[in-house]
Amino acid sequence: MPFTEAKEHAPGRLHAIFADPYTAFENQVIERQLHLRVAIDALLLQPMTEGRLLLRVIHGWENGSFEPADLAHSDHDIGSLDDLRKAVDHYHQAFEASQPFPQDDDSLLARPLENAIIRAEANGQALDEETRTIPARWPAFDQGLYLYTFFKVYHRLTYGEDDSYRTARCMTPHAPARYTNSI
């Protein structure tokens, strides 16, 4: 589109948006507040109203661990803000009492990895120990790239140091998945 057709949604801001999009708007600019309202509605209110908001708390990779079997999680259906408060209180109480965090029985990585390796070997693919245990080598077998991608997402959510709040959204063979972490 020619620059003469571009319409500025905040006067005098178009160049700033392209030159430095993260600082183009002050916090009080209407468009920034509108985007926040739209994001809250799309990410929280609509899924909560439709009964499809899930809080997945990921934990267990303490002290630099990255073994698939050590990655723990628990899922919480959030149908209201009260449900969210209860989940937060549950973790806070466990932390205060030095008790383990809630943990679901299903495995995010270990069991799916084991199943993918079994399928690959059943299809005649020979996998050495390095391919089985080094995440960067998982893409060598069917579903391995999918598992490696989730490994990287979980690792980033667990160990990322540049943001105090992180979220990731991945398309999976089953459905879109969104992972959020708040420190």
In short:
By secondary structure, this protein is of the alpha+beta class. It has helices at 14-19, 30-49, 81-96, 110-122, 129-133, 144-159, and strands at residues 54-59, 72-77, 165-171, 176-182. Helix content is 42%, strand content 14%.
3D shape? extended
What is the mean pLDDT? 82
Give me the number of helical elements: 6
Radius of gyration: 21 Å
Fraction of residues in H or I helices: 40-55%
Strand proportion, as a percent range, falls in 5-15%
In whole angstroms, the N-to-C terminal distance is: 41 Å
Strands of the widest sheet, in order across it, are: 1-2
Structural class: alpha+beta
Number of DSSP E strands: 4
Sheet of most strands: 2 strands, antiparallel
- SSE topology string: HHEEHHHHEE
Poorly predicted tracts of residues: none
What can you tell me about this protein's structure?
By secondary structure, the protein is an alpha+beta fold. Helix content is 42%, strand content 14%. The chain has 6 helices and 4 strands; from the N terminus they run H-H-E-E-H-H-H-H-E-E. The strands form 2 sheets. It has a two-stranded antiparallel ribbon with strand order 1-2. A two-stranded antiparallel ribbon has the order 3-4. A hairpin with a 4-residue loop joins strand 3 and strand 4. The radius of gyration is 21 Å and the shape is extended. It starts with 13 loop residues before the first helix and ends with a strand.
